[in-house]
Amino acid sequence: MLRHYLIWTWRSLAANRVTTLLNLLALSLGLVSFVLAAAAALFLRSNDSGLPNAERIYAVSEQIFNADGTSLFARLPMTGSPVAKYLQADYPEAEAISFLSGGDFVQSVVDGKSRQLAPLFFDESFSRIFKLPLRYGDADRAFSQPRAVILTSDTAQRLFGDSNPVGRTLRLRDVDVTITGVLAPLTPPSTFMSTPGNHIDLLASREVRDQIGPLQSEPDAWDDYAGFTMVLLPKGQSPDALRARLADFGARHVRRLQRVYAFDAVPLTDVRQVQLDGFLGADKTGLSVPYLLVVLGGLVLFVASLNYANLAGAKALGRLPESGMKKVLGAGRADLMAQYLTESLALTVAAIALVLLALVGMAGPLARATGIDLSRLLFHRPAFWMELVAGVMAATLAGGLYPAWLLSGPRAMAATLGGKARPVRSPLASALVGMQFLTASVLLIMVVIVAQQDRALGRMARSLGGTELLAIDTALDGQDIGSKDVRNALRDIPGVAAVGGSNTLPWSIGPGAHRYFKDAEVKGPPIQGIDFKVTEDYFSVLGSHLLAGREFSMDRGGDLRPDEDVPETEFNMVVDRDFAQAFGWTPEQAIGQTIWHYTLTGGSAPVKIIGVIETQPQLMLSLGAAGAVYALAPARAALPLVRLTPDSGPGTLAEIDRALIRLAPQIDWHHHFADELFQDAASILTILVTALAVLALFAVVIALLGLAGMAVHITNSRTEEIGIRKILGADHFVILRLLTWDLTKPVLIASLAAWPLGYIGGKIYLSLFTGRIVLGPWPFVISLAVTLGVAWLAVGWRIASASIKSPAEVLRYE
Amino acid sequence: MIRLTNIEKTYRTDDTETHALGGVSVSIAEGEFVAIMGPSGCGKSTLLNILGLVDRPSGGAYEFAGEDVSGLPERQLVQFRKCHIGFVFQSFNLIGDLSVEENIELPLLYRAMPKAERRSRVREALELVGLDHRARHKPSQLSGGQQQRVAVARAVVGDPKLILADEPTGNLDSKNGEEVMEMLTILNEQGTTIVMVTHSPSHGAKAKRIITMLDGQVVPEKEFAL
Which residue has the higher pLDDT, B16 or A458? Predict the structure, then answer.
């Protein structure tokens, strides 16, 4: 009997090529979306999963809260060095605890050429935890030698090509070190590979760090997220014991008023995911990236399944007479259900085959572009194949059970024996149609909002000055010159309009945020401001517009920010418009106002607002900050920024290069335009946004395929009615209006129902950004227009073909 | 062979109640050729559906070959139907995706008959209706008369005790209609009981007995004669 089911299945699918193709495409798209989203989620949770002992290695995470419980800094799998020191005593049963620090660029000389290299420093316990494979060097000795330096695979390739550099010397600052090994290429994601915003060129031992001198970020404070505290659990022990020690770790060891430190243990494999979640404000939005990816991929698959069930159900209604006849001829309910489930299974298997072909085809380009290795994450996992089989069964049942049940029931017989077989609209079918349109509309709204916000980010990048704002992003630590020397060297170059400095890029959230209050008792709701330490002429460099008050002056007492060790002294600040507005002040009203902030040693310190500038473009991740506050602190403004004149050209850049080399020929000078750096900083977000938009578009395409298929069925089922109406005098427009309303009524209802859901989703997404668009009506209008437009198009061509036939021809067809 | 006692059938919707049959009592002997005639809406097809066990009566009793089938569960009715009853419809009701021989084979498949036996029976049925040269054709490639002959072949392939024909010549021209009637007559002469609903007096006359219906009830023969 199975052979006959398969033959009938083939014939049925071939006889309805349009719906078969639509179903196949839609189901395949849905499955591909879900599989890719799941693969991406697995990728994020597979950090260093291939390393020995990976399952026993945990990173300590840290999150800092304000005293009132609100989050001050996001949870990240990184800490300062004190954590490792105290954890040794608190958790003695650990096999090993190691602290890794890094992230800064160090001036280096390799083969006589200046380079900026970013080291990751490890301590003596490192090699007890991590057994990193080496391409060159002795893995047993490379990490344990004094002043060990191991290059990453990419760095070795860049500096030495294919040759073996072990034994060669390079100079870090003014310290000569010998290369003891080269890492083998690691499978991404890995703690020991560079990512956007987190550069690693080599691993160096603690002795090297001690010798090269102080770095810009010294992670020796509890508040610094500049290092990894890694713990190797004893064999057979769960992480619960470690987590129990970390539960009150902050309360026992950290003495900071007005802040609460929370520590936890993160599996090594989850380090990348937790980093990304922290970066994207998951603690504020509750949206973890892998979870979001799987949910969105699942949503696309859900739309595909709805689409499948819709079209299968619609097709089934047209096959009632056939089913009824089979029942008359002796088919039982089980016979008919088996037949129709076989059809569903065949379609699902065909879709899976298409999906697997697509995945195999895209595996190589995907791995090269993103590091996501489908072969490792999916194909070589036995669980993947089991999940695939389960997915096939689920999709078969989801798409086939309803029509199978419908076609094997009493309605089939009635359709056959009651004269003409008239397909009856089922409430479930209408509900499925509505849900499909609803989901597609919500996704369309989100796509438009995401695209609008992405365009706004691009505008922000361009507004920074494009090719007129240059950042000299070269590490000067340990050098004889500082950023002041750089600024002085560049100030008089023709084509340079202004030179200033800041502790970080204008849109960075790196410096962190502080809370400010209206009163000295620091009570009441705080206003969070992102802190910048700048030079006197910083605002000229930014090209920012002073709205009220004045800019900083070195000649004015009170303008210079004192050393942070003496926080009680009042000093002056400039704030941006958004920050002033958060206190309820216009720019003019803010001038002369005094506000207070916490000091780390307790109490509060006053700052006076002397100027208000226009709010600068911020990348994203408001983290609750209302705006920016600026303090005059040239000694801490290590990043020189140059504003070029509009008529400056390549000659100006060449002159800048020459001036820098004259100033310090031993330094490997780097500079980038502001918009390049902005885009680079936003690259992670851009990747995520692109991925989300692609998934959303897939869902929209699937829903549209379903719409087209539904239009075919609906118009087919009413062919006789069209003929009769034409006989009675209806013209084309009456027919068009009738059928259009029939199809578009659920579209209209579902689209309108989608608006509140899309609004909520859009608000959540936009809350990630400081510079966010205003949520206007266009996403909702566009979503409605697109879904209705496609619905009308889908119906229109069918009606056109019916309307040109004579009524007799239509009825004879029926 | 068939005894219907006081059969009633009522169709109910939310607003209306339609009494399609009101106390019909009919007996049909084995080997009879019975025609059921009457105006449209008199309940002919409803009676035929009840006879064919594809619809249940709202009241009354139905005995088939000495067995009370009125209250049988669906599964047993399916079994009964596929073993004992063949159907011929006005609009042929062939499955469009299947070839002629596959359409004829269908009832045998549902009886889980072995392949060799199925093939043999299908061949015989095709020869009976004179369509062995069209075995591989699809229904859409046949004329109306040929399609109805395929339907007859499908109805007899399982060697049923009873054939129910609902206006088998309704969609055919006179020549083809005559051919189909001739086939039914031959089948009856071979021993198959046939109950046929028809509007055609000439075709009805070919039956050995005519049951006349009016308004859901059987008209007694003397009233019909008058």
Answer: B16
